[in-house]
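Contributing: when you submit paired examples, paste them exactly as shown. First protein:
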Amino acid sequence: MADREHLPLQKYADQLITLFQSAITSKDPAVFLYKNEARTPLFMAESLARLMCKINPGHRIEKALKAFKKPEDLLGEADHYDSFNKQFSKNKAVSKAQLDYLVKKRNKAFKKLNEKLPEKDYYQEPFNRLAAEKINFEDIKLISGIEKQIRTELKDSAGFFAKYPEKFTDLESQVHEIRRKLRWISIYSQSLQGIIVLKTQKTKPSWEKEFQSKTSLSSAFNKLPLKKGLAKHIYFNRNAFYALTYTIDRLGVIKDQAQAIEVLAKSIKKTGALVDESYIETAIKQLGVKYTEKDLMQDAHELLEKFFVTYKIHEKLL
C-alpha cells in the first residue's frame, strides 16, 4: 500500500549514530569503527543520500552527504594498507622494513581519523539530520525517479568507457573510476532494501556463462532483500545483474593486483631498498607475477568492451 513507510536511509543513519556513539568511549575510536565495519553503513547511507541529491539537486541533505567523505576515505585508506600488509606478510621476498612501512601508513590513517572524530563531534549532527528526514522510499514518484537515475548512471558509465575505445592508459582515473560508477548500482540494489527485484528471463543469453563464476554467483551482493507490499518495485534482469556484479568483482581483482604492484613499489622506494632495476620491476619480482600494469589495463578494457559494446549488457539490466 502506498501509505506504508519504507525508511532505509533512516535505518542506516540510526546504525551510524549508534556505531559512532559507541566509538566515543572506546580506547581507539578509529580502530573500533574499522573493526566494526563502519564503512558498510557509511556506503549504504551515502548511496541513498546520493540518489536523493541526484534526483533532487540542491536537496537539503546534500550537506550531510558531504560529511560521509572524510571518515569513509580514512577508513578506506586504513583498510588499503592493512589488507596489503596481511597479504605481503605471507611473502618471504617482502622485507620487514617494507611491512613496517605499510603498518605506519595504516596507523597514520587511523591517527587522522582519531583527530577528525572529536573535531566533528563524531559526525552525530549529519547522521541525526539524515535520521530525522524520514524519507519514505515507498513513494511511487520517488521510486520512478530512482529507476530513471539508475538508467542515467548506466548510460553515463557506457559513455565514460566510450572515451577509451582502444585502450586504457591510467588505472586510477579510468579503470578504477568506471568500477566506482558500476559499483554504485550494485550498492543501490542492497541499500534500497527490497525496492529492486531480480526478474528471471525465459531465455538464457549467449553471454551468461562468460559473465558468471562460482565466486560471483555465491556473492552476498547477488542476494537481494525483498520488501513485499511496496506500491512499486524496480525490476532488474537477473542475468544482466549477475553479469554486472561479476564485472565489478573482476575489476576489483584487477584493481587489487595493480595496487599490489604500486604499493609494494612505493614501500621499496620509501624504505631505501637497493635495487638494480626500477621499483616497479622489483615489486613485480617480489610478487612473483608475470603481468604488468599495462597487462591489467588491457584485461579490464577487454572485459568492459564485451560488457558495454559486444553484448550491451548495461542496456539489458532494466
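Second protein:
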Amino acid sequence: MKKTIIAITLLLASISQADIIKCSFTEPFINTTYSTSKSELSYEGADLKKFSVKNVSFQIKSAGVFELVSKDGKFLQILTLNNQGSNGMSDTIYPFEVKDNSSVMTANGGFGGCSSNYLKSNEGKTF
C-alpha cells in the first residue's frame, strides 16, 4: 500500500511539473515548441511545413544551461537561462536565450528567445 501511494505521489508530481517551452526566431520566422511531457520538439513557420522531432530529452548541462537532444544524440537546441533572449526583431526580452542547430535556421545564427509556462517573456518591459 505504501509503495502504491509513493508511486501515485511521484506520478502526480511529475505531471504537475510538465512544461512547454516556446521559442521565437526571426529571419526565418520560425517558432519551436518543446513539450516536457511528450518529449517532443515541434517546428513551424509561415514558409515551413510543421514537423516534430520525437523522443527529445531535456538535459541539464550546468546551472542555467539546458540542452534538447534527439534520441540519436544529436544536439538540437541549447537554452541558457540568462534573461537576455531575443527573437532578433522585437523589444521583447525572453528568460531563455536559445541556439538552434537545425538546418531550417538559416539566418541570425540560429539564435532566438524562449519562454515557458513558468518563465514568461517581458513583452518589451525590463526585468
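If you have annotations for the second protein, write them as plain sentences, like these:
Residues 3-16 have pLDDT under 50 and may be disordered.
The radius of gyration is 16 Å.
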